[in-house]
Amino acid sequence: HGWSEALAGIKSPHVKYICPHAPVMPVSLNMNMAMPSWFDIIGLSPDSQEDEVGIKQAAENVKALIDQEVKNGIPSNRIILGGFSQGGALSLYTALTTQQKLAGVVALSCWLPLRASFPQGPISGVNKDIAVLQCHGDCDPLVPLMFGSLTVEKLKSMINPANITFRTYSGMMHSSCIEEMMDVKQFIDKHLPPV
User: Fold this and answer.
1) Is the pTM above the cut of 0.90?
2) 40 an active-site residue?
């Protein structure tokens, strides 16, 4: 709900915004307490074990949402995936593994999950030239800026580096700010112009 409100402040009239809720599940990092989560989080260090099954299942769920929009008459190359934190991680992973050609990805305060599962060098998929806007706060205590920097370096080796924009925001923690939302609006308007 919070993100649909944030997007309401920047949305263009010709763009449809869909903000799916993550399912509620027990999260290891949160002492197995149930909370909205796209997949399990076991730890927050770069070498933490990852929930491969959960990440792949969540990506399939996002691909199903894309399929539904395509059935509704929106070509996949007019669809941008986006998300914050775990949702941003899922958006990146989905865009790099789907056979659906997408318009772009907005990845906020996040990382690339299962990064070791990707081959070294450029991907050969339909989204090898996808536009990516990656944003991160320089004071993020939860997903450190270093994760964002490592992710953008990995992305530059996988997809056309000319299409990747990495923005950092001074003093921003694990959250968003007006300046970031304006950058998101500019990205969406550029890659989804009115038809």
Assistant:
1) yes
2) no
